[in-house]
Amino acid sequence: MKRFTRFYAKLRKPRSKKQKTPAPPQEPSPVISSPPADASGTATSTIEGDPSPDSRSDVIAPEPAAGSQQPQESKPTGPQRALGPIKLGLGLAKEAAAVFGPLQSVVGSLLFLVEHHEKWMSNKEDIKRVVKRLDSLMASLQDGANNGNTSEDLHRQELQECGHIICDLGDLLTIVNRKLEMAAQTLEAMKSKNYLTASENAKALSGLIEDIRGMLQDYQTKIQGNILSHTSRLMESEDLRILQLLPHALKASHRSVTHKSCLKGTRVDVLEKIEAWSEEPSSLSVYWLNGHAGSGKSTIAQSFCERAFADGHLGASFFCSRDYTDRSDLRMIFPTLSYQLACAFPAFREQVVSTLRKDPDIGHNSLSNQLTSLLIIPLQKSKLSTVIVIDALDECKETEPASVILSLLARYIRHIPLVKFFVTGRPEPPIREGFRLKLLEPLTTIFVLHNVEVESVDRDIELFFRTRLLEAVLGRSDVDLSIPWPSDDEVKILTTKSSGLFIFAATAVSFIVHPANQPQERLSLLKRIPNSSLFEGQLGIDSLYFTVLKNGYADMPDNGEYAVLRSILASIVLAFNPLSKAMIASLLHIEHSITSALRLLHAVLHIPQLDNEPITVYHKSFPDFITCESRCVDPRFFIDPAVYHPMLAVHCLEIMTERSALEEYLNMHVVSGLIILPILQHLQPCQMSGLFFIFL
């Protein structure tokens, strides 16, 4: 701890910065003023210096003309040009690391790699990213140390919290340095080997460097989380109270445990392209990750968020989901993003709190007023440079199309040139139309995920199968499997059947390794399903879903049990909001356990242990399959919406006629922190009916 205290004290001193050549003065971007009310009482937005919507495309100061004269200087060529910035960055990092021995050793080893690496350029970008991560790590540590204006007690608490991180970091960097020494040995081997072996060693070196990046990212994430907590503690209680006026989805952020990231070693090329876009100052302001259902958009978005958060680049994130009311509501997106930014950045918070003091209901206003008042104006005035992520925009359930969000971004995004937006979504008509808007299209980079080379996707899916299947059976004593398991042929068969869909791979793994079954038997079942050849791989995923259903319920003795199963599944896939086991049992008047009825569907449904927590589907391709007669061809499992929507409505009406049953049902809900039951005694039957339908 003494070592940490000395290091931390040095960090709290002002950081010496490299002198930059002053940039030529630019015309400032017009500032959006607060939305005044028009004659009809409707709030409208005005932009200073922006007399008409057609002129909005000119709000950013123009770039210097291509032919303008600039000071000329000699430029390095070849490897020197590529490695020059890395050497410079390492030189600065080494100077900064002098206060912390383990970090200095790591930087020194990296310098050795660079100086002996100029003939092996394939790892240039890998090393450059490690350098950036080290620099970001030092910046994060210093930002946490220089938060300033803290009381002595708070500073002491800060020391205790950060102390463990920094002391552990010393041990981590020692491990990192050992890996770098291994990398140096690899380089020496590369010099004396033929081209093929050298290529293999270059790949091994890249793997080592990726390991280092991952370890550093884990620690940066801890530090950023610590800084975020510290910033929240510094927030004035009055500011916090006012911020709570903003409606916000609590589990929409990437930090929620409900989101899964990519398996290490997969989607590497895609993630590097996204990272490069986010880090390049001159890149376009919007990035659309476009892909079919099940292609892995959300896991990629989660992985990108984790990396950007660790580096301090991520401002806010919103992961849409049609399984949750607040995360499928377009009107929750802008207030939630604003709330997250306000919690993380004091300068932004000051602007939002000021707005909320003047208009406490701004979070319930029109989408246009939300965007201008809660995001655009505060971002302009705080001069914040950051990345904002919106995932699965196509999952919002609204009468307004998702393209409304994109249309608004098209109008205002030029006023915040320091902010980048990363958006994912299926290429559905409303979203395609939104990105084709003449103001947004020139500012958007589009990455079509299903156009990635088949070989690259198959390699990732193959790695996923090998890793996840082996992990699942390692600790089991009730299985007798040949080694290695699964075999190379079996992995290749499963990969082929996946047809590039990660949701197929994830569902297949869950089906194979369920604790109640023998993995090899389940794997053999999947080997017999047909390969996919239809649009978006539907044949393959449909066959997989049918195998899951048939394997679990093919031997039920009579149609009555199938009818009960269909009713339960209908209440899960057709309800507007997810229902819990207790709610389903009450709604359908089912006496036996819902858990028992669904115990064989863990591959496609998330079934929580607690009876009052909602059951959700892992992926929306399952409801799409089971409610489509041309895809779910077995009548034992097909859920016909035209039949089951009225059936569920009848059950609702039955409950409404029994006041005690309705009270029991509503007792499971909390709305805005208030229990519903005390309100019931004041409601008439027709009002109670309306309230019930709101929940379904």
Automatic annotation (TrEMBL):
> Basic residues composition bias: which ranges?
1-20
| Record flagged with keyword Repeat | yes
Per UniProt, residues of the NACHT domain are: 285-427
Disordered: annotated span? 1-82
Q: Which of UniProt's keywords are assigned here?
A: Repeat
One Pfam family name from the record? Answer: NPHP3_N
Q: Which Gene3D superfamilies match?
A: P-loop containing nucleotide triphosphate hydrolases (3.40.50.300)
The answer to whether keyword Repeat applies is yes
Q: Where is the composition biased (Polar residues)?
A: 67-77
Kindly provide the name given to this protein in its UniProt entry: NACHT domain-containing protein
Q: From which source organism is this entry?
A: Hypsizygus marmoreus
